[in-house]
Structure formats: structure tokens, C-alpha cells
Write a structure and sequence with these properties.
The chain is of the alpha+beta class. The protein folds into 3 domains: 53 residues, no CATH class; 91 residues, 2-Layer Sandwich (Multidrug efflux transporter AcrB TolC docking domain, DN and DC subdomains), CATH 3.30.2090.10; 178 residues, Multidrug efflux transporter AcrB transmembrane domain (Multidrug efflux transporter AcrB transmembrane fold). Helices cover 63% and strands 16% of the residues. The protein contains 14 helices and 10 strands. A two-stranded antiparallel ribbon has the order 1-10. A two-stranded antiparallel ribbon has the order 2-7. A hairpin with a 2-residue loop joins β3 and β4. α8 runs parallel beside α11 and α11 packs across α12. The longest helix has 54 residues. The protein is elongated.
């Protein structure tokens, strides 16, 4: 398969881990010429090392900092074989000879080393994506490779790098997310002491998650690890306003209000605090959602999920949650009244 078949234009870059045969500079000493001029190979090596590798010729002092001064040929001259052959090599105290007379300077092709992973030979194709998520690209690339390439027996195809990290992170999130949701539910239950009211508050989580998913879809963003972290944070934010509302409903009922009166009065009283809390949280994430600087690929999904979820969970808190509270609590009150009515009749008869 060609590189273009793996990547569409503008999606990234593809390069091979090994190039097969790489150029290398080879300098072979002419032993007979060195013996004629009574010259040691170490003298010639010193000239080559200074020209190609650099020679420390002093120290630059700037305040309390010191910098070594290294002199060597420029990059273009180090690639030019004629310049290297013309390097002067001192012959005793009598004069200079060009390096080309003392050694053969050539550029040859060498075979790249064979790379292994777990005692198995490995040939890697490195891909740098732009404008696409890793997960969807790997699925598409895997499908194309399996359709167009038939691997010989004993050969395997694996995707690593960021995709491998993504796969490991998803496995960890499969444990972390349920644990976080369960912990949130326990905290709500401890706050109210009622499974019924804890479930009422917890009903904000599904609608908040729905808002986050819709926000990702509207912005054409894939599900990523940062988006998953945003859903975890959103679950905590989604129940916050529900706790505020139901706590106030319970407070009004303790003061003697009826369920319907407590719901109406509490909803109107807590309308402004709930809207302001949601607006502050949403506006705080807008710079991250619109970011285009370094790290934006991590910030934007997280902020988009939180903003979309806050909007949908606020709708639940202001409209749906009071209706559910009224329905559940009035039904419970009727049931309690019907159970106590026979006892009162028996007391009157006695």
C-alpha cells in the first residue's frame, strides 16, 4: 500500500522507522602514504574530529554563566566530500598535506540495523495525524490494510503509540467511571438519608451526559480520553443544583408547607442561584472550548462536554426535577395518609 492510501491529503505525515540503506561517510587510511611521510593515524584523526565533530577552543563567560566555544565546519561543508578531502593535515614541522592524499574519502550506503521487539523482528510505520482522532483512523487503517494486504504466515499487524495508550486508558476508565458514579450516589444518599430522593437528584446525570454527547456531535468532535474525564467532572456538577433544590424543598416542608406549595415556592426562590451557578461554570469553560493554542486537542473536548451537560442538566433542575419531586412525594404522602386512616377510625370507634 502507498502512503497516500493510508492518509488522505491534509491528515498527517507518514514515514518509515528504517529507510533500508542509509548514507555513511567512510574514510580509509592509506597506510603506505602515512609511512612515507612518517605520519601517525592519530594526527589525521585529530584533524577529522576537529572538522566534523568540533574542537573546544575556549570559554565564553557571561556573568555567572560559562559557555564552551566549539569550532567546526558548517553543515553544508560537512556534507561536501571535496571540502573534506581538502582538509589540511600537518606533517611534522615541514608543511601541510590535504586529507585526500592521506586517505580515501567516500560516501557509501549502509544497511539499517534490524530492530526487534520481544525477540521478534519489527518494521514500524510511523504516522503523525492532523485533524483526526486516533481511534477512528486506526479502525479505518486496519480495515484498509486487511482488505488490500495479505500478510505472510508468521507476520502480525499491531497498532501502538498513542492508540495503545488510548486503549489502556479506556480499560482504566471502565473501572474509574462506575466507581466515581457509585461514590457520587453514596454522597447524595448520606446527604438526604433517602434512596428515593438520592435517585431524584441522580436523575440529573443521564440528562447531563446526553447534553455532553449532543455538544460533541454538534462540534464534530470524537469521544476521547479528555472527553471521558469531562463526563466524570460533569456528573459531579450535574447533581450540585439538584442537591440545592431538593434540600430547599425539604426545608420548606419541615416548616409546614404542602408538597405542591414547597415545590412552587422553592423553584421560584432557587431559580436565580441555579441559573447563576450554571452560567458561571459554563462561561468559565468557554476559553477552553474555543482554544486553538498548544494543548487545545485536550482542552476542547473536555470543555465542550461540560458546557453541553451543564445546559441540559440546568433544564432538568429547573423544570423536570420539581415535577418528579412533586409526583414522588405527593404519592408517598397519599400512601401514608391511606395507611393511617384505618387506625384513626378504630380509635374513634373505641
Amino acid at each position: 500500500m502507498s502512503r497516500k492510501s493510508l492518509l488522505r491529503e491534509g491528515e498527517g505525515e507518514v514515514e518509515y522507522e528504517t529507510t533500508g540503506r542509509a548514507p555513511m561517510l567512510e574514510i580509509r587510511v592509506k597506510r603506505d602514504v602515512l609511512a612515507r611521510y612518517n605520519l601517525h593515524a592519530a594526527d589525521m584523526n585529530q584533524t577529522i574530529a576537529a572538522a566534523l565533530g568540533g574542537q573546544n577552543v575556549g570559554m565564553l563567560v557571561e556573568g555567572n554563566r560559562r559557555f564552551e566555544i566549539v569550532v567546526r565546519l558548517s553543515e553544508n561543508d560537512r556534507r561536501n566530500l571535496d571540502v573534506i578531502r581538502a582538509l589540511p593535515v600537518r606533517v611534522g614541522d615541514s608543511g601541510m598535506l590535504p586529507l585526500g592524499q592521506l586517505a580515501d574519502v567516500e560516501q557509501i550506503k549502509t544497511v539499517s540495523p534490524i530492530l526487534r521487539d520481544s525477540a521478534q523482528r519489527r518494521a514500524a510505520l510511523m504516522v503523525n495525524l492532523r485533524g483526526r482522532d486516533v481511534d477512528s483512523w486506526v479502525k479505518e487503517a486496519d480495515t484498509k490494510v486487511r482488505e488490500h494486504v495479505r500478510l505472510p504466515e508468521g507476520y502480525t499487524l499491531e497498532f501502538g503509540g498513542q492508540f495503545e495508550n488510548l486503549r489502556e486508558a479506556k480499560a482504566q476508565l471502565a473501572i474509574v467511571v462506575p466507581a466515581a458514579l457509585a461514590f457520587i450516589f453514596v454522597l447524595i444518599f448520606m446527604a438526604f438519608g433517602s434512596v428515593r430522593q438520592a435517585l431524584l437528584v441522580y436523575s440529573g446525570v443521564p440528562l447531563a451526559v446526553t447534553g455532553g454527547i449532543v455538544a460533541l456531535w454538534l462540534r464534530d468532535m470524537p469521544f476521547s480520553i479528555s472527553a471521558a474525564v469531562g463526563f466524570i467532572a460533569l456528573s459531579g456538577v450535574a447533581v450540585l443544583n439538584g442537591v440545592v433544590m431538593i434540600s430547599y424543598f425539604n426545608q420548606l416542608r419541615e416548616q409546614g408547607r404542602d408538597v405542591r406549595v414547597a415545590v412552587l415556592e422553592g423553584s421560584l426562590t432557587r431559580l436565580r442561584p441555579v441559573i447563576m451557578t450554571a452560567a458561571v461554570a459554563a462561561f468559565g469553560f468557554i476559553p477552553m472550548a474555543l482554544s486553538t493554542s498548544a494543548g487545545a486537542e485536550v482542552q476542547r473536548p473536555l470543555a465542550t462536554v461540560v458546557i453541553g451537560g451543564i445546559i441540559s442538566s440546568t433544564f432538568l433542575t429547573l423544570l423536570l426535577l420539581p415535577l418528579l419531586y412533586d409526583l414522588v412525594e405527593r404519592g408517598r404522602s397519599r400512601k401514608a395518609t391511606s395507611e393511617t386512616a384505618p387506625d384513626l377510625l378504630q380509635a374513634d370507634a373505641v
